[in-house]
Amino acid sequence: MAYFAKVKEDNVVDIVVAVPDEFETDPTEYLTKYWGEGGNWIQTSFTGRIRGVFARPGYTYDSAADVFIAPEETTTE
Questions:
Q1: Which of 11, 14, 41, 68 is within CB 3.0–4.6 Å of 4 for a Cys-Cys bond?
Q2: Distance of CA 60 to the CA centre of its chain
């Protein structure tokens, strides 16, 4: 399995989906068929080997550094 994050126009991750191995090199057909047209899909990995950390909804994609960034945790007092 390969994992792809759908990044919205504001560079925030919307969803992350698993793509079967046979579509890993060209996931466009699979992603379009099951998740619809459009969207900027970027590969991520559980090991962090690809783009620093595993993307999750709410994370931000930094295209200049080519990494996903976790949202800052907020604390309440």
A1: 41
A2: 9
Cα–Cα dist 43/77, whole Å: 37
Distances (CA, A) of 54 to 13, 33, 72, 75: 11, 24, 15, 23
| Segments making up each domain of the chain, as ranges | 2-56
Cβ count within 10 A of residue 2 = 17
Give the integer Cα–Cα distance in Å for 71 and 12: 10
What confidence tens digit (pLDDT) does each residue in 13-28 have? 999 999 998 887 888 8
* Integer Cα distance of 52 and 39 in angstroms: 21
